[in-house]
Specification:
CATH superfamily of the largest domain in chain A: 2-enoyl-CoA Hydratase, Chain A, domain 1
Number of domains of chain A: 2
Order of helices and strands of chain A: EEHEHHEEHEEHHHEHHHHH
Structural class of chain A: alpha/beta
Radius of gyration of chain A: 20 Å
CATH topology of the largest domain in chain A: 2-enoyl-CoA Hydratase, Chain A, domain 1
Low-confidence stretches of chain A: none
Oligomer: homohexamer
Number of helices of chain A: 12
Helix content of chain A: 40-55%
Distance between the termini of chain A: 18 Å
Chain lengths: 270, 270, 270, 270, 270, 270
């Protein structure tokens, strides 16, 4: 199991559980965090025995978002040439975006389990996950607006696909707190569980169920839904036809069919 | 009225009611079905007296999805050249997709009325319809995942526009059953009626109401909503401007205006 | 404060309140209205002291949509050359669209507060706003279908992003009335307030709150959400990175940071 | 070999040669022609022994474009309702477009060999082919402009990809005649041969060479070039990766490798 | 005839000839010029008797590009808030772009006739025209690179459609001079005439020929080519079908047909 | 200077010269090559003193394309599960594509200097470069077709932007050899030099000239041309406006202006 400064990784059978692990800093995202997110999802992508990832926060909260010390440091490195500053800032933002793109592009489903604060950069993070679940007392806020800036690590691009354009703008312009109940009503999370313990139990059970399906079928499904988000229906239909032209010759299909006929569960290769 | 092996077609005034008619096989979609869907919607497109289509299932269920015998037959036809197999599978998938594209592209609104099982390929079918209504005890499931495959006849492309990206992934990864109440809450159906009889009565009344509107206006509206799904707002605005440049010179506009002024209902030409 | 025939403009601190002001005609949109909408949003865009706009209806209703007298006049101007008529109609539609594009493209948030009737062209108008709120007894209807035409001033392009594809088609095909409660449930409005007075008070307070945020951050956020509506996630991420490369060098960021640290509110330059 | 009223089909080994065969009418495209083009390319698509198609004109010319009698007949069928006329015209245009889409979408390469007149609709036709070759005295003209209309069967969409935007507009606005030499210089044809006989011999030899390659590889290549015309580089790269995932497991690859090593020519299955 | 500070407008029958008229400043583009370009093309769009525009330079050159005094003035207006500067610069660039967008979007063809220098902003200008012609000794250069900046008024977006991606980059990275002969070879101009007088005579004759065609057909053709530049072939085909649904009912078609039959020239209404 | 197994890197002032260095194997691309290409362009991107890259072949040829031993090895690793094979092949292709994407996405211009053979994968490589130059006796061929496969490392996506759709298909379907003269005529290379020595001298001089320009301006120009290849003109204009909002505040602009006024050359910071 890989070890990190800011993340704790556990493996439960086929499910990896990644905890953001700076509870004394409300799991604020520092420079090490952004690098380690890329590393851990690289490890996930290459480790065949991991089929689903759950991400949650250690301690009382999910995460308070980007570590302000990191912003202060970036500010300190500015020069007097505005153009060169701009190029440097742009590359920094692209690097932060790359961390959460690693979640979005991970070939395996990633599920966020949120309790307590989920602020600013943490909204960017969960927007890049496949699904989101929370406790009723979770607190969500697009806090960037109160930093005097537009969110730039994915919230404004991915969240409208979850909650619709109208509510999106209210939350992004005001930064107001949304609790778990409202989050479930507007589609920000799929459902809530009553306590942190029940949330983790529920989400890990869901993850285990997904891990029991054909891994090739899950990957194809994720790739198609991601592709459809950015392409026309016609392009999407064409793409799945080419993809399945090979995948339907896989052993998994035969295994699944046989299991289906015999009412047993199939045991798919990694 | 055309006759089919797997479909039963009734016409109520301006509304065609298409029933999937293999109740003894839970309305499973066999080879004849995929061909006849293309034929019946070709007939709908060319028959001026039909203005709206309702599609439902004969017997106790809407449909259990693709007929497994059809998959078995396809599997039996495989050769030892993987490349040629792939091309053949790809063409088969494109052909199945074409059947439901015929619903999506039909110039007239198509409304699904769902009771009982609506599984696998049946979700692909209703995703291609204009609207969906059900009984509370309807049972929806993206069952392809349990066949060891990614759905490839349109669900993954069209359904996210109905239920949002977050719930989409949960249902596609797990294949879990959704009943009519939840379907209404997440946007999969627009509303429920309490029994199968009330559902059919309600949907046929809705269809009759749509059939009383100007057919040119309905077709233009459907074309624009379909186009907007896959294009930018700006492209969409440009397209409707060109379209209406001719349509606003139609007689229907004058008829509708006159009817509106005199508080009577207009009687539009087919 | 600019003065208009069909609009009344008030300014409350940093918030402009635009009232559609033809109550004796149920605020129907006549030729002057379409011109003045462009003018008032041009004034908003250039007036630094205005940061947020609220739009509502004077009298008992929001608006009954386009003035039928205007359509009659357009009809009277038709010649016998259908091609030239078509070009003229097309340009007229593009001109009407430009009026509501001025709302959509306005650099500052525009919030609709709806009570009473909101019909036909009024739906096109509120679809182009950033957010929508209403009383429970507001009455929404895509009435164009009963005029024998497809809506052509933005409803069919923008509304699906708010209420999903399935409900969109039902409302566009039938033109049925939706009240405020249902509007809130399907995402057409973000919430309701119980009376017209409470609605205005609530929306103006919300507008004032948004006006207290960094105006550069609000503009960037609006631009990004609009851009994301029509582009892929990847394009959107790239765009915000280039945008923020300059914006993160702004004074607003420092002001906001300082305010955040000292728990005071920042006072941003216009 | 199928037989047609307006087309003559010959097969030379793996190459089908389709001649437009109304020489007494300068090969003008009548109603039968537009249907038979769909039929012949349907036959080509399904006939494994045909791997490449050459299309040329019988008699002294390639084709003078659409038969004016057909336009006159369409004009005669007009009613007094402009909206219904518009819908009918639109469907007629879509049907004509479908005829040349059958060429564009044909899975096998289609090569045009042009001598004499190639006017109006004939430019639409050759724009939908894979490659074009001519005699020096061929005469090309986008003649639609002299009919008082914008070309609507594909020229304006496909030709800019061949000759660039600047020359495209000159030819479309003026309808001026371009001979074979200029056509070769601007990219409208790939090269010229000096006489009609040499042209046919040269093009049939080229077609035979393409027919000797792996048919799966040729189809994949055509599909990718067509796709790249309408998509981003990134989408194109993703698509070919999925496509080749199956195709690189084909026998053709092994055959080609073996042939390459032994300096012999491979004999691919149809 | 409208009068301007920096432009001279002549009308020859149906052709407007716009001369950039600051010969003592090598026709450098000052603030007045950018405004007047919008005005003159607004006038062209609304003046039915103008059907084609020719644009050339008064004196010895076409234009040396943007007036450096204008840049100096912009530089002088900078504040110390980089974010607000950025927003101001962005709006200024969008305003300059709007000037040449007015050429690109003008409903009537615009032809550039180039002699002498055509540098920097002048390349942006001619890239937005429909066609370009020059003398052999014309001198073209993407001079922005030597100002330490990327061209931002349209060259980098529109020129690749004319000269291909490979030559585009060489010229944009080096700013090297291209003469008329090379310009014709790479597609930057359609052809050359030997002297300034012959160039103007040739281009005006070409413009007059285009002006004799059906103005509706010319506008439709320009709209379709512009649309196809930014859309897929399929979208383009759909668009022209809707467009022509109305346009083919125009009188121009009948006039053109009759003229064609009788071998006379048609006289189209403006 | 970094050292590699398959590449040789020299630095001439601000220009890096990368030589493919397996002359005894005709510079065939083996596994080490594909990795090292990523490394060398990573080094280029991060090394401020390198502003332009030239890539050429050591010995008598540019490159014969992918090493057949690498394909044989890949073939040997196949399992009996076609679905899992497909996923593995797909990932391998994506990895090969990533190597040449590193060239395409490199922030600094990359120029190919080609002599001798340039076959198969080598065409994919030079298609990803900014510009291409060659000797007259260079030999270009899209050789993949003779391997029984469609090219899958970028040729089919990028080359049509250089040589047009018509010639593209001829070369891709036939794999025929094109020499340097023809390559220059069709736009595959920008020009030729007569000998290998003159080619290198000419290309290095060109590279040095580009290296003397503002590096920020060159990067912005490359980014905009790449972006425009895959986006609409309108999107491209919007993007450059946001980009230059920061870049026009750079020191380089002032330096370039001063140099321009004084007719001296500017000395830009890295």
């Amino acid at each position: 199991m890989p070890e990190y400064q800011t993340l704790l990784v556990e493996q439960h059978d086929k499910v990896a559980h990644v905890l953001i692990n700076r509870p004394e800093k409300v799991n604020a995202m520092n420079a090490a965090f952004w690098d380690e997110i890329v590393q851990v999802f690289g490890w996930v992508d290459q480790t065949d025995s991991v089929r689903v990832v759950v991400i949650s926060g250690a301690g009382k909260h999910f995460s308070a978002g980007i570590d302000l010390a990191m912003l202060a440091q970036a500010a300190a490195g500015m020069t007097t040439d505005i153009g060169r500053n701009a190029e440097r800032i742009r590359r920094n933002i692209l690097r932060l975006q790359a961390s959460f793109n690693a979640i979005d592009q991970c070939r395996k489903p990633v599920i966020a389990a949120v309790h307590g604060y989920c602020l600013g950069g943490a909204i960017d993070l969960i927007s890049a996950c496949d699904m989101r679940y929370s406790t009723p007392d979770a607190q969500f806020s697009i806090k960037e607006i109160d930093m005097g800036m537009a969110a730039d690590v994915g919230t404004l691009q991915r969240l409208p696909h979850l909650i619709g354009d109208g509510m999106m703008r209210e939350l992004a312009y005001t930064g107001r707190m949304v609790d778990g109940h409202e989050a479930a009503r507007i589609g920000l999370v799929n459902r809530t569980w009553d306590s942190h313990a029940e949330l983790l139990e529920g989400v890990l059970a869901l993850a285990a169920e997904i891990a029991s399906k054909s891994p090739l079928a899950i990957r194809g499904t994720k790739e198609m839904i991601r592709y459809s988000r950015d392409h026309s229906v016609e392009d999407g239909l064409n793409y799945i036809a080419s993809w399945n032209a090979a995948m339907l010759q896989s052993e998994d299909l035969k295994l699944a069919m046989t299991a289906h006929m015999s009412k047993k569960s199939a045991d798919f290769a990694d």
